[in-house]
Amino acid sequence: MKKIILSIILISNSCYASDCFEITGKAYNIDPLILKAIAWNESKNKNGIKSKINKNGTYDIGIM
């Protein structure tokens, strides 16, 4: 039952990537298509992707 409730909450409150690109583009005066292109170039729009280890020992997680 807890899993069902959690799933409903997550689905109803999720921010779709295209909405986030639109909102962020308006906030920073950047064309959302540019943001989408950057996301595609960096991760092919895969949410859970993890980058190779950076020079400083850290790594990046997510779309951008």
- Average predicted local confidence, pLDDT: 81
Count of extended strands: 0
**Computed structural class:** mainly alpha
Radius of gyration: 15 Å
The biggest beta sheet reads:
none
The low-confidence runs, each spanning 5 or more residues with pLDDT under 50, are none
Instruction: State the share of residues found in helices, binned by percent.
Output: 40-55%
User: With helices defined by DSSP (H or I, 4 residues minimum), what is the helix count?
Assistant: 3
Large-scale geometry: flat
What is the rounded distance between the termini? 34 Å
Strand content: under 5%
Order of helices and strands: HHH
Give the total of domains.
Answer: 1
Organism: Escherichia coli
Signal peptide: 1-17
Keywords: Signal
Protein name: Lytic transglycosylase domain-containing protein
Q: Can you give a write-up of this model?
A:
With 64 residues, the protein is mainly alpha-helical. The protein has one domain (1-64). 55% of the residues lie in helices and 0% in strands. The chain is built from three helices and no strands. Helix 2 crosses helix 3. The N and C termini lie far apart (34 Å). The model has no long low-confidence stretch (mean pLDDT 81). Keywords: Signal. InterPro entries: Lysozyme-like_dom_sf. Residues 1-17 form the signal peptide.
